Amino acid sequence: MRGHEENYSYLCAALRARAARFYTWEELSSLARGGFESLKSEFLEGRYSESYRSQLLSSLSSPLRKIELAIMFEITRRLRSAHLKAQGEPHELMSVVLSQADLHNFRIILRRFVSKGSHQEQEYLWHLYGDLPREFFKNLWESDSITMARERIYLFGNPRGAILDSALAVLQTSKNLILAERELILNYIGYYETSISKFPNKNGAIVKEYLGRLVDLWNLNLWLKQRIGAEESRSSADYLQGGAWINPKDLSNAKVITDVIRWTPWYKAVRTKTFNSTMEFQWHIQREFWRWQISLFRKDPLGFEVPFGYIAKALAEWSNLNIIAIGTAFRLNSDKIIGRLIPTK
């Protein structure tokens, strides 16, 4: 926490001005239709030019990898800079929301130890706008076993590492990724609920709903995996408590998923659509999560909605530019690329 005074007025004004640097939906669509060479030109001369030009000095990366690295460095820089501008309450609440970087990386580490194939030679593009540094994740990624990874977590000495350590312990004994992820989410929520409890106001309530929606997402995905008989879901895992909108008891009794989400904000994602696969359904639910976060940016101009929405806009741009880069590099149909983008309007 940097000082005790709130600086919402200054912070929100600064972030609204900075948000003008994000690509509009029309600009993203144009990049998707322009092809990979056009995208490279945009990165060379446009808003990501500084980060991209620094990657051009490396002969070890492919053209696609250079763009991916440029996106990572630029978005990470913007988010860290925004966080440094906050003081008091917004700084603490932003710390909770930005900790999703660590959660994302924790999940990658868990999957690294259940992967049956060979591990990728290139280092994973970590999300580094949270609390833990690249060194922490790199050392775990290079560990030969779960035991070695847990020892390195202990030696690193950061209390946030215990969130992952507990999940790795479950994975080590159960060999079940779903059970390990359940432990991960449970401990992650528990760790940051203490920070949120300091702010019993509508700003704290926004972050509390964010964590609750993470629980909703996990529970919905578990329901789907159990219904399609995914191998990893055969070991019974209980639904998590503490969701924002979905009652675990209702979910466990549901035969049709829409019966559970019909009277919740999640229903917006599915009410006018027909899905051909569970993956398609999951994508629309995830996209609705992003839509809600981004929409907050234009709510209370002097509240936590602005920094929260700014973070969502930044991460959506990271995802969208990566989708465009990969899609154009492999010459996928532009309409299909655009169809996978997170709405930013």
TrEMBL record:
Signal peptide (residue range): none
Entry keyword set: Ion transport, Transport
UniProt keyword annotation of Transport present: yes
GO molecular-function terms, A-Z: proton-transporting ATPase activity, rotational mechanism
PANTHER family on file: V-TYPE ATP SYNTHASE SUBUNIT C
Family: Belongs to the V-ATPase V0D/AC39 subunit family.
InterPro entries named in the record: ATPase_csu/dsu_sf, ATPase_V0-cplx_csu/dsu, V-ATPase_V0D/AC39_subunit, V-type_ATPase_csu/dsu, V-type_ATPase_csu/dsu_dom_3
The species this protein was found in: Acetomicrobium mobile (strain ATCC BAA-54 / DSM 13181 / JCM 12221 / NGA)
Official protein name in the record: Archaeal/vacuolar-type H+-ATPase subunit C
